[in-house]
Amino acid sequence: MNELLQTVTATADTGRPILDAATREVIGHAPVQSVADLDAAIAAASLAQASWSALGHAERSRLMRLVADDIDAHAVELGQIITHEQGKVAGEGEAHGAAHWLRGAADTVLEPQQLAEGSELHYVPLGVVASIGPWNFPVMIAVWHIAPALRMGNTVVIKPSENTPLSVLALVEIFRRHLPADVVTAISGDREVGAALASHPDIAKIVFTGSTATGRRIVESSSANLARLTLELGGNDAGIVLPGTDVDAIADTLFWGAFMNTGQVCAALKRLYVHDSIYAETVAALAARAEAAPMGSGHDKANRLGPVQNPAQFDIVARLVRDAEERGARIVTGGEPAVELGPLFYRPTIIADVDDDAAVVVEEQFGPVLPVIRYTDVDDAVRRANGTEQGLGASVWGPDPDAAALIAQRLDAGTVWINQHGGVDPQVPFGGTKASGYGLEFGVEGLKAMAATKVIRR
Predict the structure, then answer these.
(1) What is the dihedral of CA 301, 302, 305, 307, to 10 degrees?
(2) Catalytic annotation, pick one of 232, 364, 441, 445
(3) What is the per-residue pLDDT for 108?
(4) pTM confidence score
(5) β-strands 26-31, 15-19: how paired?
């Protein structure tokens, strides 16, 4: 029995049914809250903020570590909810990761900066921070938003994705057991509630992770109150494999850079440019790994790939693959639903001989699909990799890390990895460029993003 799930789920009469991503069976009911509920939560958070700030960094960090310990203690229960809602294999790992990130924010040192002429630069709380989260890493990304905000003395009102609310409600329940009342509040509502949160006059800062289209609407909504923004938006990350690369040595890392969490990662590898001299070998190596990767229910730890989380995203994945095939691209492996596993499983798909203007290259597929694109000139590969409005991440793969780093300098992305893709760290800033958003998360820069500056001159 999952007592944490029982604590946060509503009754069938009052709540909205939430489905298991793999089986599509009802696992619980999310509360249906209104704009009035949101207004009340923001008012309470505003009242709680001053006393929370007054506790100081040391005490806030101590309480955050207590929450992290409790998340670890409930990681199995929390992980089960994550796997039910999101579909990922071993949701327990996401729960432990959230605890790790919470400790990272608690432990990061941010001192006043000494300036010239006896001046000091201080970082002070903003007020109430709004968090609007996605469905692909509901608990982890919630902590990415909440942890630095709390550390800097803000209170938080969070709206989880309508697809994965129960895991975030369970996370916030753990926070509430250790923090003063109204410091962190979750509001489970529809898009109307999300729009009201983004435009609310008492919100000082909005942190959003999700699509570029929604990010643009949040920018518009926030213009009335001039709320500060951190936006981590869509990514269409390119990878470039340089000539002379040992394909066997990188194939596993390359594959999982694209297919971790069944490809449902903002900073996953989504377009791969491979030099003609090793193109066929790379395609074959990736296809072999796709065919060998065990897929199925996330509750079975023998699996590595789960379902696409929701029907709308599944339809996008299927449409992009179908369009590529109709354009003459070669479906090396996959290219069809795995109907024997469940309604939202799609076989891991490698697409070869695909053109740059195919939808699967131009658009972010956010699923278990990787187009592999041939090139002959490295300068041309860089130009093509940069030919997108997104600029979240990118990677360069090659035998000489220094030579790869020179290529990395030329790629338009917030993070460029060398012989890896997608790894993040609590102490290393992360953020996008172009239409992938703005603002930094993690580390000292992430703390600064959750604060206002104040200069004191003596």
Answers:
(1) -60
(2) 232
(3) 97
(4) 0.97
(5) antiparallel
Q: How far apart are CA 188 and CA 207, in angstroms?
A: 17
232 has catalytic annotation: yes
Which domains can be identified in the chain, with CATH numbers?
Answer: 3-233+436-457 (3.40.605.10), 237-418 (3.40.309.10)
Residue entry with tokens 């990514």: 235
DSSP 381-413: HHHHHT-SSEESEEEEE-S-HHHHHHHHTTS-S
pLDDT band at 224 (very low <50, low <70, confident <90, very high): confident
Alpha-carbon distance 149 to 72, whole Å?
21
The tokens for 74 are 């409930």
Task: Tell me the pLDDT band of 1, cut-offs 50, 70 and 90.
Answer: low
Distance CA 412, CA 435 (A): 11
In angstroms, rounded to a whole number, what is the distance separating the alpha carbons of residues 307 and 341? 9
Distance in angstroms (rounded) separating the CA atoms of residues 42 and 129: 9
Give 228-270 pLDDT, tens digit per residue. Answer: 999 999 999 999 999 999 999 999 999 999 999 999 999 999 9
